[in-house]
Amino acid sequence: WTAEVPDSVSGLEGSCIVIPCSFNYPEPKIKPSEFTGIWFKDTSEVIYHPDSSNVITDYRGRTELVGNLRQKNCSLRIDPLHSSDKGPFTFRIEIKDYNKASYKYDRVSIAVRDSPDPLSLSVMEVVKVGEEVSASCSVSHSCPSDPPLITWSHSGTPSIQSQQQTKGQWEETSTLTFRSSNADNNQPLVCTAAYRGGKRVKSSKTLTVKCKWPKYLIHPHVVTKGHVMSVYIILRQYSFGCSTTCSVKIKLFIILIPDPPEIKVDSACTSDISMVTCLCIVDSEPPSTVEWSLPAGHLPSTRVEMHGSVTMVSLQRALGFSETVHCHASNTQGNATLSFTVSTNGKGNSWGSVSLMN
């Protein structure tokens, strides 16, 4: 006849506690049909009995046998735990038509705490903007049926895991996953564990969030203050700019590389009842000189507009001046020509050529 209980367990006042207990006995020839488990305080006061009328007033309604006696498990729950529940406590088993035993030498005491155990908060405190952050917060407790509720000061995706420890203790762990942003820099990440009865415990760590340049845009992807970076853009049709996820001021200096004229495909001639209107759009650096011509000679432009490297030149003439009109563009880097066939009903066809200066 043996029993196994820890020498002592600890729990938070107002929460619950489970005293782990197992027992053994010589197996009888006939399988027992009925078991009665009894718990005592100081070997004489009954704190648990299947017949609650046998239980002393202070423990009546607060104790429950959570172990299965047929499986030799005699674990006891006390809920809620009072400051006076120090013990020592012992277990007794009565087996109908067989035998009974009091395990008075296997005693367990309870250390009742008036404040929760401290939290264990783990997180990488220095991260980069946009990185996935995983933080874990763990707390030890003694009440598996009603564990502390763990919450976070930061939004994200939390997950909970409970794991049994030794001497009646359990560990509750909450893991929070989120993506860092610049708003998280120098901000505390707070983990809070709330127990039944209103007791709380907190732990926090301050995050440092560093700037991050996306690798697929430029290299190096991490830039420090005072660093000069050069970005080379070869084709002028590429759009470009400069941005950062950090709350710092940046300067963008744009140096335009010389380019030969490029007459855009939007260039065209259209006609209505009495008028032909032609538009020639040229992109180049430096801006081009643009002229119109007929097979017989040059034509003056009706209107010229300049928009940075883009030159827009229009021509309006009465119908019948020619079936073909040419747009010539030139700068120090080369020249280009686009020819239009003028139709009396709608938009004409176009073809062209480009030559570069050596």
UniProtKB/TrEMBL annotation:
It is found in: Membrane. Keywords: Disulfide bond, Membrane. It is a single-pass membrane protein. SUPFAM superfamilies: Immunoglobulin (SSF48726). It comes from Oncorhynchus tshawytscha (Chinook salmon). One of its GO terms (cellular component) is membrane. The keyword Repeat does not apply. Pfam families: C2-set_2, Ig_CD22. Residues 116-208 form the Ig-like domain. The keyword Disulfide bond applies. This is Ig-like domain-containing protein.
